[in-house]
Amino acid sequence: MMLQNRVYLLFIFCIGISVQAQNEFRAEWAAGGSGGINFPSVSFRPKVLKNTMTGYNGGVTARWITEKNLGLQFEVNLKQQGWSEAIDETNEPIINPYYIRRLTYLDVPLLTHIYFGSDKARFFINLGPQIGFFMQESTSQNLNGAIVVNRPNEQHTMPVEKNVEWGIGGGPGFEFRSGIGYFLLEGRYYYALSDIYNTRREDFFSRASSQVISVKLTYLVPIRK
Predict the structure, then answer these.
(1) What is the pTM of this model?
(2) Over residues 114-120, mean pLDDT
(3) Phi-psi category of 117—alpha, beta or left, where left has phi over 0 and alpha has psi -120 to 50?
(4) In 3D, which of 121, 117, 118, 116 has the Cα closest to residue 176?
(5) What is the pLDDT at residue 12?
(6) Would you state the pLDDT for residue 89?
(7) pLDDT confidence bin for 25, thresholds 50/70/90
(8) What pairing do the DSSP bridges indicate for beta strands 55-67 and 207-224?
(9) What is the CA radius of gyration of the chain?
(10) Domain segments of the chain: what residues?
(11) DSSP string, the chain
């Protein structure tokens, strides 16, 4: 009888801890804005040698923490992608030749938000699909009609042919939670599963897909807990 009472008390105690743990969690809505720097490139086949270039990213973010350690994050961003070419030889003498193509997209990620930590500081990982809508492009170059030797030159005169881009993005970050809002510093990598040009058998490029490394700072204000 004594053993049964002890088992019963232990069972009640475990249930109480479980209920208390569940009661400690509150679903959370938060929204705000973000801004940062992109380091984009485009992977071409046939290969085009590239330099590092920089662009910008910025937009609005809404996050819903649905359960402990897990949530959803929705963003609408203006993002600058493209590529910069490494040019070492042309068919005509040019001082400091360069070619840079900048592509601007309206980018919409839908991310799974996984976090660990306390009410003050958290580490997190965002991961999920995103879709981009091409808006405009611009070119900076110092070739003056010259041709890059032993490399493709077709991309210099080809406009973007695909107006919609999709892929997978994600990365780690750190969140500091204060009385005036949440501050998030995040690194992210995006890999496009589509191409900016047509890549059929009869087209020149068989691959022309974007990759972007980003560093961004986000500020969120809690809407409801």
Answers:
(1) 0.84
(2) 92
(3) left
(4) 121
(5) 46
(6) 83
(7) low
(8) unpaired
(9) 25
(10) 26-224
(11) -HHHHHHHHHHHHHHHHHHHHHHH---EEEEEEEEEEEEEEEEEES---EE---EEEEEEEEEEEEETTEEEEEEEEEEEEEEEE----BSS--SS--EEEEEEEEEEEEEEEEEEE-SSEEEEEEEEEEEEEEEEEEEEE--TT--BTTS--GGGTPPP--SEEEEEEEEEEEEEEETTEEEEEEEEEEEESS-SS--STTSS-SEEEEEEEEEEEEEEEEEE-
CB 34 within 8 A of CB 75: yes
pLDDT of residue 130: 96
Rounded mean pLDDT of 150-177? Answer: 95
Residue 34 scores a pLDDT above 80? yes
Q: Return the CATH fold of 26-224.
A: Porin (2.40.160)
Determine the pLDDT at residue 24. Answer: 63
Per the CB < 8 A criterion, the answer to whether 45 and 206 are in contact is yes
Most distant CA pair in the chain: distance in Å?
Answer: 99
Is the model's pLDDT at 19 over the cut of 60?
no
Quick check: 208 pLDDT over 50? yes
